[in-house]
Amino acid sequence: MFNKLKQFNDLRKQANDLKSMLAKESVEIENKAVKMVMDGNQEIKSFELKSEMLSPNHKTDLEKYLKEAFAEATKKVQRKMAMKMQQSGDFKFPGMN
Q: What domains appear along the chain, each with residue ranges and CATH number?
């Protein structure tokens, strides 16, 4: 039982270490409507709408570009996270080795 508790604590420490490491990483996305920076924990750090997209005529385009920007940023962050985990080799999950 104590072995399982130690494994759980080790796993929790690894998760916290990973979260701290990813907070230092970021990706920047820019398209016709938006410029944004997302950190490795998928938190938006900066967000800028381009003024020409703020007219009611561009509502549909703006919605499309926002959706695309969030999707692209999320994918880039996830790829970066996977690469970091592979490179570090420090993250060993109990029962998955």
A: 24-87 (3.30.1310.10)
